[in-house]
Amino acid sequence: MIRRTFIGAMALSLLPVVTTAHEFWIDPMDYIVPSEGALVATLRVGETFAGAEQSYLDRNFVRFDMQCGGTLEAVPGRAGDRPALNVAAPRDSLCVIIHQTRDYTLTYREWQKFVNFVEHKDFEGVLAEHAARGLPESGFVELYSRYAKSLIAVGDGAGADAEVGLVTEIVAEANPYTDDMTDGLPIRVLYDGAPRADAQVELFARPPEGKVEVTLHRTDAEGRVTLPVLPGYSYLADAVVLRPLEAQAEKDPVWESLWASLTFAVPE
Fold first, then answer.
1. Which residue in 215, 220, 218 sits closest to 233, CA to CA?
2. Which residues form the signal peptide (predicted)?
3. pLDDT at site 3
């Protein structure tokens, strides 16, 4: 049984990455649960696969669902629940947990913080576009929202991930609990239902013992990339869209970021 305290990663051939952004993800207590077991997971915001726990607050999310064996159900809960997900597993299957936050805003007081974000997420041309639009280097606002998924195996864990209708999302194109992961986990990154070509995917990985490793990957023309994985490890994959907004008033957002994440584990 892979538990949250044994989430892990892998050594890739890429250089280490220094993270500067805050990710949002679904953090299961157990990635593999027995038949008639419980689905238990925490919502987290943080960096490098470590972050603060978020309560179940319906005012803070647009959608919080679980799709098990092809059946989509809303995640039940009461305001303030921690962990945010704590329900009986409805059936043996691959359960996909889905969470979409509400919109939030961030005001950039320092230009360098925006530069760091843009460069870290590799948003080509954004800094030049910012200048060309005549936008200020401080005091401007970004709108952002999060689109998280997590894969949990219940019983035999049979089933497949699929597109669930988020504006941006990461879809696993194999089942990490039942399929052969020797060659890695193939994923596809989508935006408005279409493949995101040449998109950066950040992979956070923590071994059973040791520090989290962070590596970068890129999708092909069809939005696909295969993430190398190892048995006994757990992973957080993250991909971010940044798009311009036309402000109608002085304090309106001028950029919008959409954060897609996927958590999963690979059995030993």
1. 215
2. 1-21
3. 47
